[in-house]
Automatic annotation (TrEMBL):
Belongs to the DDB1 family. Keywords: Nucleus. GO terms for biological process: protein ubiquitination. The keyword Nucleus applies. GO terms for molecular function: nucleic acid binding. It comes from Euroglyphus maynei. Residues 1-61 form the RSE1/DDB1/CPSF1 C-terminal domain. It is found in: Nucleus. The keyword Acyltransferase does not apply. This is RSE1/DDB1/CPSF1 C-terminal domain-containing protein. GO terms for cellular component: nucleus. InterPro entries: RSE1/DDB1/CFT1, RSE1/DDB1/CPSF1_C.
Protein backbone atom coordinates (compact mmCIF):
# COMPACT_ATOMS: atom_id res chain seq x y z
CA UNK A 1 0.00 0.00 0.00
CA UNK A 2 1.34 3.41 -0.94
CA UNK A 3 -0.20 6.41 0.78
CA UNK A 4 0.60 9.97 1.74
CA UNK A 5 0.51 10.77 5.43
CA UNK A 6 0.77 14.05 7.38
CA UNK A 7 4.27 15.17 8.35
CA UNK A 8 3.71 14.74 12.11
CA UNK A 9 2.43 11.21 11.58
CA UNK A 10 5.37 10.42 9.28
CA UNK A 11 7.89 11.66 11.86
CA UNK A 12 6.19 9.60 14.58
CA UNK A 13 6.28 6.43 12.45
CA UNK A 14 9.84 7.11 11.26
CA UNK A 15 11.08 7.31 14.85
CA UNK A 16 9.26 4.08 15.69
CA UNK A 17 10.72 2.45 12.55
CA UNK A 18 14.26 3.49 13.52
CA UNK A 19 13.80 2.18 17.05
CA UNK A 20 12.42 -1.12 15.75
CA UNK A 21 15.18 -1.50 13.15
CA UNK A 22 17.80 -1.15 15.87
CA UNK A 23 15.98 -3.58 18.18
CA UNK A 24 14.85 -6.34 15.80
CA UNK A 25 17.52 -8.43 14.14
CA UNK A 26 16.66 -9.76 10.71
CA UNK A 27 17.21 -13.24 9.36
CA UNK A 28 20.84 -13.39 8.30
CA UNK A 29 21.56 -10.37 10.52
CA UNK A 30 21.40 -8.01 7.54
CA UNK A 31 21.37 -4.36 8.58
CA UNK A 32 17.91 -2.88 7.94
CA UNK A 33 19.16 0.29 6.19
CA UNK A 34 21.46 -1.77 3.97
CA UNK A 35 18.60 -4.13 3.08
CA UNK A 36 16.31 -1.21 2.11
CA UNK A 37 19.00 0.56 0.05
CA UNK A 38 18.34 0.78 -3.69
CA UNK A 39 21.28 -0.51 -5.71
CA UNK A 40 21.89 -1.00 -9.42
CA UNK A 41 24.96 -1.08 -11.68
CA UNK A 42 25.35 2.70 -11.63
CA UNK A 43 24.40 3.90 -8.18
CA UNK A 44 23.33 3.14 -4.66
CA UNK A 45 20.69 5.24 -2.93
CA UNK A 46 19.35 4.98 0.62
CA UNK A 47 15.61 4.53 1.11
CA UNK A 48 14.16 7.94 1.94
CA UNK A 49 10.67 9.09 2.93
CA UNK A 50 9.56 5.50 3.31
CA UNK A 51 7.73 3.80 6.18
CA UNK A 52 7.94 0.00 6.20
CA UNK A 53 4.51 -1.22 7.30
CA UNK A 54 5.74 -4.76 7.94
CA UNK A 55 8.44 -3.49 10.28
CA UNK A 56 5.95 -1.19 12.04
CA UNK A 57 3.50 -4.09 12.50
CA UNK A 58 6.26 -6.22 14.02
CA UNK A 59 5.94 -3.95 17.08
CA UNK A 60 2.88 -6.00 18.04
CA UNK A 61 5.00 -9.18 18.20
CA UNK A 62 7.44 -7.81 20.78
CA UNK A 63 7.42 -8.54 24.49
CA UNK A 64 6.18 -5.80 26.84
CA UNK A 65 9.75 -4.91 27.81
CA UNK A 66 10.86 -4.68 24.17
CA UNK A 67 7.83 -2.53 23.34
CA UNK A 68 8.76 -0.16 26.16
CA UNK A 69 12.33 0.10 24.83
CA UNK A 70 11.05 0.93 21.35
CA UNK A 71 8.89 3.82 22.61
CA UNK A 72 11.88 5.77 23.91
CA UNK A 73 12.16 9.23 22.39
CA UNK A 74 8.82 9.06 20.59
CA UNK A 75 6.51 12.02 21.06
CA UNK A 76 2.77 11.79 20.44
CA UNK A 77 0.48 14.71 19.59
CA UNK A 78 -2.70 14.35 21.61
CA UNK A 79 -5.29 17.10 21.19
CA UNK A 80 -2.66 19.61 20.09
CA UNK A 81 -0.23 18.82 22.90
CA UNK A 82 2.98 16.85 22.46
CA UNK A 83 3.70 14.24 25.09
CA UNK A 84 5.80 11.11 25.38
CA UNK A 85 4.12 8.21 23.61
CA UNK A 86 3.15 5.23 25.74
CA UNK A 87 3.18 1.59 24.70
CA UNK A 88 -0.63 1.68 24.63
CA UNK A 89 -0.60 4.73 22.31
CA UNK A 90 1.66 2.94 19.87
CA UNK A 91 -0.25 -0.35 20.03
CA UNK A 92 -3.46 1.51 19.20
CA UNK A 93 -1.89 3.34 16.25
CA UNK A 94 -0.20 0.21 14.86
CA UNK A 95 -3.42 -1.80 15.15
CA UNK A 96 -5.33 0.95 13.32
CA UNK A 97 -2.72 0.96 10.56
CA UNK A 98 -2.82 -2.82 10.23
CA UNK A 99 -6.57 -2.65 9.53
CA UNK A 100 -5.97 -0.43 6.49
CA UNK A 101 -4.60 -3.23 4.33
Amino acid sequence: LIAQIPKDYYEFLLKLQKNLASKIKSVGKIDYDYWRTYTNDKKTEPALNFIDGDLIESFLDLSSAEMAECTEGIMYNMNGQNRKATVDDIIKIVEELSRIH
